[in-house]
């Protein structure tokens, strides 16, 4: 007899497991499946970073660090932001080391949200932000970015706020380079948005974890223009292929950092000490570790983009991260879940339905090109075979 009780937190009971993870697990059971589902670098962590972790183990770095993380790591992170992006944070009281960027998101949103607050969520978007907002008893309000090729403009924000006069707007999510679209921003666009957010007095939770993976331009952080309004999130997962090490960062004003530190303490105490020691190596001697990875990602992007456009997919050209977000061609199943399941069943290719990124993603699919060229070639061959098969068209 089950002893499970259903008198749980109502918000938690209503939250669903990510569609991305559910779909990935479902298709994994199909034999000979080519998966381009999860957003994880296919590269290994650089050798010098792994050696630093091994040394940390041998040197008995096996105890807690302070809640904010090792000061040497915070200094390395602050220095990285200064040299790469022209940002200036005091390592002592403006930087927190988190358990990945995901914990950073949770800590930031928990700190700023009160019950009844509204957070602008540009959509389609990586889904992790939404349940965290809901857990804080705030309300995510979804702004459709598809109307402008997934690029936010000040007018879109102005119009969205005007259309919700009843909402108590507290902040906005910025994620760029963006997951799932791969879209990012140039300096003029970011400065204009910063002026808009300042005018509306919005907190900006800016997830810039893909900042080292931009193509054709250098990443510009919105924290350059309104640092006191921005909670900046970054980490080592994408820049240094360290997803499993779980090292992220929060950068903010002294006052905001002090408040977030309290949330962070009770969530996790501190990030793993050995991973922090590896992080110091990554951000000092490995400051440019992302460059060779970025070059390969760009080649892969160009190949997949050209192939899918040739098959009739409409794509806003990605300028960062490692994703293609593509509109399903006319004449095919437009329900993205049904399309992806059919593709997986018939041609053993797994890509993510656009609805995994919100209602605004319906009719689209997301593909991760964080995979070898050999694997991508096989994937594109299978996609081509599916699209060119008349039996897969809708009557």
From TrEMBL:
It comes from the Bacteria. Belongs to the class-I pyridoxal-phosphate-dependent aminotransferase family. Keywords: Aminotransferase, Pyridoxal phosphate, Transferase. PANTHER family: AMINOTRANSFERASE, ASPARTATE AMINOTRANSFERASE. Transmembrane segments: none annotated. SUPFAM superfamilies: PLP-dependent transferases (SSF53383). NCBIfam families: PRK07309.1 (NF005588). Its EC number is 2.6.1.-. Its cofactor is pyridoxal 5'-phosphate. Residues 32-383 form the Aminotransferase class I/classII large domain. This is Aminotransferase. One of its GO terms (biological process) is amino acid metabolic process. It comes from Lactiplantibacillus xiangfangensis. GO terms for molecular function: pyridoxal phosphate binding; transaminase activity.
């Amino acid at each position: 007899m089950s002893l499970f009780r259903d008198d749980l937190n109502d918000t938690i009971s209503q939250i669903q497991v990510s569609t991305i993870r559910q779909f990935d697990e479902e298709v994994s059971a199909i034999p000979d499946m080519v998966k381009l589902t999860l957003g994880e670098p296919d590269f290994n962590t650089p050798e010098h970073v792994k050696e630093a972790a091994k040394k940390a183990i041998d040197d008995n770095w096996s105890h807690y660090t302070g809640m904010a993380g090792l000061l040497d790591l915070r200094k390395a992170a602050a220095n990285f932001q200064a040299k790469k992006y022209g940002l200036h944070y005091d390592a002592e009281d403006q930087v927190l080391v988190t358990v990945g960027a995901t914990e950073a998101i949770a800590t930031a949103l928990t700190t700023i949200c009160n019950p009844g607050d509204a957070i602008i969520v540009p959509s389609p978007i990586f889904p992790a932000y939404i349940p965290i907002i809901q857990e804080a008893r705030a309300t995510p309000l979804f702004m459709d970015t598809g109307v402008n090729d997934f690029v936010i403009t000040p007018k879109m924000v102005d119009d969205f706020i005007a259309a919700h006069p009843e909402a108590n707007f507290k902040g906005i999510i910025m994620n760029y380079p963006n997951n799932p679209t791969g879209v990012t921003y140039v300096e003029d666009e970011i400065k204009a948005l910063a002026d808009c957010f300042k005018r509306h007095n919005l907190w900006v939770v800016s997830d810039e974890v893909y900042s080292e993976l931009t193509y054709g331009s250098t990443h510009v952080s919105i924290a350059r223009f309104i640092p006191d309004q921005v909670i900046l999130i970054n980490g080592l997962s994408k820049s240094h292929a360290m997803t499993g090490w779980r090292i992220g960062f929060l950068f903010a004003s002294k006052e905001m950092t002090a408040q977030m530190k309290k949330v962070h303490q009770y969530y996790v105490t501190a990030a793993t000490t050995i991973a922090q020691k590896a992080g110091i190596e990554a951000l000092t001697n490995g400051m440019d570790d992302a460059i060779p990875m970025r070059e390969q990602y760009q080649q892969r992007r160009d190949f997949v983009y050209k192939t899918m456009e040739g098959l009739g997919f409409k794509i806003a050209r990605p300028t960062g991260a490692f994703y293609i977000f593509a509109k399903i061609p006319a004449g095919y199943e437009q329900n993205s879940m049904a399309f992806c399941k059919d593709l997986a069943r018939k041609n053993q290719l797994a890509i993510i339905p656009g609805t995994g990124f919100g209602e605004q993603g319906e009719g689209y699919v997301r593909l991760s090109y964080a995979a070898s060229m050999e694997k991508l070639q096989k994937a594109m061959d299978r996609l081509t075979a599916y699209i060119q098969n008349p039996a897969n068209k809708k009557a």
